[in-house]
Amino acid sequence: MADFDVDLFVIGAGSGGTRAARIASGHGARVMIAEEDRIGGTCVIRGCVPKKLFVYASRFAEDFEDAAGFGWTLPGEPRFDWPTLRDAVANEVTRLSGLYRKGLEGAKVQIREERAVVEGPHEVRLQKTGELVRARHILVATGGWPTFEPPIPGGELGISSNEIFHLPQLPKRMLVVGGGYIALEFASLFARLGVAVTLLHRGDNILRGFDEDVRVRLRDALKEAGITLRLGCTVDRIEELPDGSRRAHCAHGDPIEAEVVLVATGRRPNTKGLGLEAAGVKLGPVGEVMVDENSASSVPSIHAVGDVTNRVNLTPVAIREGHAFADSVFGGKPWTVDHLTVASAVFTTPEIGSVGLTEQQAYAAGYELSVFESAFRPMKATISGRQERIYMKLIVDKKSDRVLGVHILGHDAGEIIQAVGIAVTMGATKADFDRTVALHPSAAEELVTMRTPRA
């Protein structure tokens, strides 16, 4: 023990790193954690938490409109104030970051607020103070970082999802470059805040990797919400105009002018300059730390969890990976994370909830399928007059009757899919769904009342 300053050194105080640090300390390990930015990581500081608060704000416009159909008369025209939202969200982020700090302090984890670089299998160098820390185990939990792929002239004139939360004023026009969930969520919420949004994506459809029926319906819903979609197109260069706005020149079609260009073309594991390769750690093609099912790298004393491993890049997955690592290495209770059945949500409006295999993935895996689906107008819309639809889909293995996947597009899809994820993870069959009594009236009851498979 005397050969090491700490038992565990964690690089990165995001969700996965802080969970690992706290659990390891609870098992009696001496733990130090380093964070060069703000404690809390991507999710708390510049990701899912502030974004979800923005999503809530964006949905009030339709709520005000819908209220009239239910007999409500508002005293005046609703008015949105961007600085109020921006600053309220920033304050909540600060509060949550403080709670993360208190959690680490309460667990007696030593905190170093500076960059840390790996110098060997057991050595970490703190960059501000120059302190060299010898650790029995090192955990890399540095997450991911936005990228503009491929780099283009004028790319620096765009902003990433890191900066979008701090705009000095709400733009009148915004160009969003990308077709993944981050691009779509911001395009959706800003359009509902009154911004004229154009979304440009190089693919022929949005949201690659999700079920095809859901992708098509979300694409149509975004168009209906007033978002201009330009698919099959790329940005060649961006220039700044005399008034400070941007003009994006596209490979096909007219250029696009906007006050803000949000580049959401992907994220890469945040391993650049960490010294991992020099320490013998094998990295993958996009810079990810290559790990086994126990989150161990090619160097036995160095582990990695979360987005930096590029496995399933979701906050709850990073938390479970960090917990499993700490229990396994320091608690004498080894276990691993199942990455196969993980529920996810896309907080567009309408939102997506998904768990398990898509129809395309299931066919590719060789299953013979029964596919059940339902599309209907939600009860609320019958009086509000809004022409929205909810879509639900069950992917069922004909041979075993097991539900392989569930996909929902519509209001509260994320909330619904969390509960459904329990059933799918447990291996529920379609018969299990069928014998579950429906909760009426609700949208979710459709999941247990679908009886006839698609022809």
How would you summarize what this structure contains?
The protein is α/β, with parallel strands linked by helices and 455 residues long. Helix content is 30%, strand content 23%. Strands 1, 2, 3, 4, 5, 6 and 16 form a seven-stranded mixed beta sheet that branches.
What order do the helices and strands come in, and which of them pair?
Blueprint: E1 6-11, H1 15-26, E2 31-34, H2 41-46, H3 48-69, H4 82-106, E3 110-112, E4 116-120, E5 123-126, E6 132-140, E7 144-146, E8 173-177, H5 181-192, E9 196-201, H6 212-224, E10 228-231, E11 235-240, E12 246-250, E13 256-258, E14 260-263, E15 267-269, E16 302-304, H7 315-330, E17 344-346, E18 352-356, H8 359-364, E19 369-376, H9 379-384, E20 390-397, E21 403-409, H10 413-425, H11 430-434
Parallel strand pairs: 1-2, 1-6, 2-3, 6-16, 8-9, 8-14, 9-10
Antiparallel strand pairs: 4-5, 5-6, 7-15, 11-12, 12-13, 17-18, 18-21, 19-20, 20-21
